Amino acid sequence: MRKYLLPLLFIFLFVIESTFALMVAPTEMFANERWFIPHFLLGAIMLLVIFGSKKLGLLYAFIFGLLFDIVYTEIIGINLFLFPVVTYIVYQLMKILQNNLIVTTIITLFGVALMELGSYGVNFIISITTMGFSDFIFSRFIPTLILNLIFIIIVIFPLKKYFERYVERLSL
Amino acid sequence: MPQFFLNKRLIILLVSIIILVSLIGFSLRERDSVTWPEQFLKDMTGWAQNIVAGPTQYIAGFFENVQDLQNTYEENKELKSRLDKLAFLEAEVQLLEKDNAELREILEKEDSLTDYEPIQATVIGRNPLRWEEKLTLNKGTRDGIEANMAVITANGLIGKVKSAQTFTSTIQLVSSKDPTNRISAVVQNGEKKEETFGLIEGYDEKTKRLLMTKIPYDAKVEKEQMVVTSGYGGVFPKGLPIGKVVEVTPAEYGLTQTAYIEPNADLYDIQHVMVTKLNSINPEIQKELEELNEEEES
Q1: B31 alpha carbon, distance to own chain's centre
Q2: What keywords are annotated for this sequence in UniProt (chain B) (predicted)?
Q3: Structural domains counted in chain A
Q4: Is A73 inside a domain boundary?
Q5: Of residues B86 and B61, more confidently modeled
Q6: Does residue A27 fall inside a structural domain?
Q7: Domain residues for A45?
Q8: Residue A127 lies in a domain
């Protein structure tokens, strides 16, 4: 049973993102002017690659990137490419940097920022969005970073413990 | 130079960029239906979304109820004033409907473009990245939903069905920036009983208005006029309310006009929708379709 807990966790995060977008984001409280984009799944995958194993993290990034494209965006390729690339960059950065909770939080947030910028770039090129760059920064990029920072701060400690134990058990 | 080509990571990156571009190209072309592995994965996710959406909707509903209670007094006052007019309207509608049915009988015309069968559905998910506004519904082809059907809420048109799977379907909102997302619409001029045709295409994110283009340059479109679907696309029923005209400007080359339309329906907070299943399609289009089929067969 414990073996299946990790995939289940990621599937749960995958689904909860769409529910979050449906329930929380469009309420009047946020005045519809700001986009709070949840990157919970990517955040957890980045934490997995930092605290857990590289192989497992990249595999999950690849699988869920593909799943994300098929189910939500219907344009196959964008997230399939961005998820593993961002995860890999974060992994390489963490090899150089100190492995403590504050640095990890900042680097994970940096990964989210990369993801947002990357997906803005691709969507702008294929003209799915016509949002200007300054609009993007103020109404989408900054709110999204704030939301995901809150998420990372909440989950970083429990996930660190869980991933480390999971990998330990795998190597036994 | 040889070292450049021997760099394994660089080659992986280049190859994946090529794959990325070709995959995007593959999915951007107009597709009538999604492939079966995609359908399967979407249905599976839909099933999981259903499980999660239930409790969250319950909790969100509770908070909304509390908010509603605060506004009850004022709403009640306003509703009472409208209730008086309602009785008159109802009587009038009944009369008109009866008239309409009788006239139709005289003309021996049974089906009309306005007739549709609503299929109730609940929204269970939304594209979290929100570059393209796409929603997932909890009903699919099993309940009669097909691609390209119009989707409405109680207030008006919100979009169309992009793709339908067995148990779920994906809808695209009118605010989506997809160049293939066009709706044939008509501006109603109440007093003169004139109709002006145009196309709804595009959405201005800042002002939250829809763009109606290809309006003839000599047509007199004014503020506050209602815009409804024309039914000439062949897949949307006629007369679904879209919104109100806010502003009219000449288009780029002055050959046509562009109207800015404030949508009737809330395009952000959507929970329950109706998918309109048309009872009949435009006879001209049906004829064309039949001809096409015959050509293909022969």
Answers
A1: 18
A2: Cell shape, Coiled coil
A3: 1
A4: yes
A5: B86
A6: no
A7: 2-19+37-171
A8: yes
Q: Which residues of A touch B127 (CB under 8 A)?
A: 18, 21, 72-73
ipTM above 0.90, yes or no: no
Cβ-defined contact of B56 to A19 (cutoff 8 Å): yes
Mean pLDDT for B16-24 is: 87
Nearest chain A residue to B130 by CA distance is: A37
The domains found in chain B, sorted by start residue, are 183-263 (2.40.10.350)
Highest mean pLDDT (candidates A145-159, B219-233, B279-293): A145-159
Q: Long-range contacts for B222-228 (Cβ within 8 Å, ≥24 apart)?
A: B222/B189, B222/B248, B223/B247, B223/B248, B225/B187, B225/B188, B225/B189, B225/B190, B226/B187, B226/B188, B226/B190, B227/B185, B227/B186, B227/B187, B227/B188, B227/B200, B227/B259, B227/B261, B228/B185, B228/B186, B228/B188
Give me the pLDDT at residue B233, please.
72
The 10s digit of each residue's pLDDT in B138-197 is 999 999 898 888 999 888 899 989 888 889 999 988 888 777 778 889 888 766 667 888
Task: List all residues of chain A from 46 to 105 with a beta carbon under 8 Å from chain B.
Answer: 67, 69-78, 80-81
Asked if residue A103 belongs to a domain, the reply is: yes
Query: Does A18 sit within 8 Å of B23, measured CB to CB?
Result: no
The one-letter amino acid code at B160 reads: K
Q: Which of A67, A81, A126 sits opposite B28 (nearest CB)?
A: A126
Query: Chain A residue with minimal CA distance to B22?
Result: A77
Query: Given CB atoms, is A134 within the 8 Å cutoff of chain B?
Result: no
pLDDT band at B113 (very low <50, low <70, confident <90, very high): low
DSSP 8-state secondary structure symbol assigned to residue A70? I
